[in-house]
Every structure is written in structure tokens, then in C-alpha cells.
Amino acid sequence: MGSRGAGRRTAGAAVAVVAALVAAAGCTVQGTGADGRPPVRVDHSKGAARTPSGGGRHTKSPPAPQAPVLWRPGDSGRDVRELQARLRQVAWLVDGPSGEYDDPTEQAVSGFQGKRGLPRTGETDTVTWQRLRRMTHEPGTWELYLMGGQPAAPPDPRCVSGRVLCLSKSSRTLRWMEDGRTLRVLPVRFGSRFTPTREGVFHVYWKSRNHWSTLYDTSMPYAMFFSGGQAVHYSYDFAARGYAGASHGCVNVRDEGAIADLFAWVRTGDKVVVSG
User: What mean pLDDT do residues 112-134 have?
Assistant: First the structure.
């Protein structure tokens, strides 16, 4: 009996120690179990919140930085006009330029972005603008203010394939087109009703950079002949007088820098279409 009582006292002392340790840890001890040991209940209401360890926490990677937006729907001005002129060069926009970032401009930008794997936002950010600039040339005054901002007539169907000088008497324009894409648009002047420019489909058969007309005793720089003595060329008179005059059947260009570029691009054999 003595040894049994001593064992019970030792067990009781052990239980007391456990209870003290549990209490110090923020737990409570209530009652005793069938084996004489008190059941331990953990009170979580007063304990500090535990932070789970391991890979249970889900973290999101920071979003990729977006390119700064230069222009968006509702904007207007000269920069928007240049954007529209460049979109026209790559055949994503038909109307304008108007200088207003309208719905057609937003749709054109979105289409351009999607074609090149960029986010289709319809807003012109720096990445979109740099890509468009690499694909186009600096628009001139005529391209920026083409048709006074009014819709431009679609090109003649005969102009939509190959390399073509597409000339329209109705809009008084020259389009340089390659495979249906308009790469340059210039204002031009045609012959008078007494010396009309012939209409139809022709081909450039001769180029003469510093041509002089012996028939009319006048200079015809950057001449590209397509029908007899009729040619596309630079005209000092057109540059000075505008549409107050007319040619003797040739197609006059008044922008000397533009016709110089065009002369370099056009090859002998390229198609020429003159429509009424």
C-alpha cells in the first residue's frame, strides 16, 4: 500500500506539472479523466493567430507594366492627325485624317495591334506608335490634310494588285500602291479639256530625271513617261499657281521632294492607271 500510495503521489505531482505548463501556454485544465489525468482543452479564442507554414500561401506575381498611352479616344490635334495619316498608309484607315480620335480610328488601331500580336486596346501606346512609325514614312502636308478631312474615294479596282501609279481625275490625286496598299498620296494636276490626259491602263516605259520638253520648251524634272509624250513629272507652274492652270496632257506634281522620292521608287514597267 505504501509503494502504491507513493506512486499515486508521484503521478499526481506529474499531472500538476503538466497542468502548470499547459496553463502557462495559454490553455485551461478542467476535471479529470477516467485514468485520473485531467483532460486538456486548448482555448483558441485568446491565442495568437497562427501563420500557416509551407507552400499553402498563394502569391500573385506583379502585373506586367503597361506601355504609356500617348493618345486615346476623345483626343484631338495634329498628333492624332499624323496617327491617322500613318494608319492610312498601311490601309487600316480609309477616312480622314480628321484630327479627331473617333470610333473608326480606335477600330483601326485595335486592328493594327491585333495583327501584330499587341494587346487590342484601341489606344495608341508607345509600343504601338513605334511599330507603326517603323512601317510608314513621315506624312506630308497633303497626307495630313487629305481631302480636307473628308472620306477619300477608294482606289480604282485596277490598282489593287502589283506596283501601280493610280491616278484619279475626280479626286486629283496620285496614289503609289503596292499589292493593294497605298504607300503615298500626292495632289496632282491633269491636262485641260483641249489637251486632256489620256485615260486607261498604261506602263512606265521611260524615266528621265532632268527632262526638257523640246515641244513646249519647258523643264519636266523627274519625268516618268507612260503614254506617248504624256508623263508624270514635277511642275514649277503647278507649284506656283496651283489649280489655276493645267498641263498639256501630263500629270503635274507640285511637291518636288515627294516626286523625287517617287521617281526613285517607280521602275520601268510599273503599271499606270488613269481614271476619270
Answer: 94
Q: Are residues 127 and 237 in the same domain?
A: no
Helix residue ranges per DSSP H, the chain: 2-24, 78-89, 103-115, 126-135, 141-144, 236-241, 256-265
Q: Which three cell numbers stand for residue 61?
A: 506575381
Between CA 270 and CA 276 the distance in angstroms is 20
Of 182 and 34, the structure prediction assigns the larger pLDDT to 182
Domain boundary among 144, 176, 205: 144
pLDDT at site 172: 85
User: In the numeric block, which cell numbers belong to residue 251?
Assistant: 500629270
Is residue 161 located within the same domain as residue 266? yes
- For 97-117, the DSSP string reads --SB--HHHHHHHHHHHHHTT
Q: Are residues 168 and 256 in the same domain?
A: yes
CA 185 to chain centre: 21
Distances (CA, A) of 235 to 146, 175, 183, 209: 20, 17, 22, 13
Does residue 15 sit within a domain?
Answer: yes
| Assigned domain for 63 exists | no
- What is the spatial distance between Cα 127 and Cα 66, in angstroms, rounded to a whole number? 10
Task: Please check the confidence at residue 21 and state whether its pLDDT lies above 60.
Answer: no
Q: What range defines the domain where residue 29 resides?
A: 2-41
3-state secondary structure of 96: coil
Average pLDDT of every residue of the chain: 79
pLDDT over threshold 90, residue 191: yes
d(CA 274, CA 169): 8
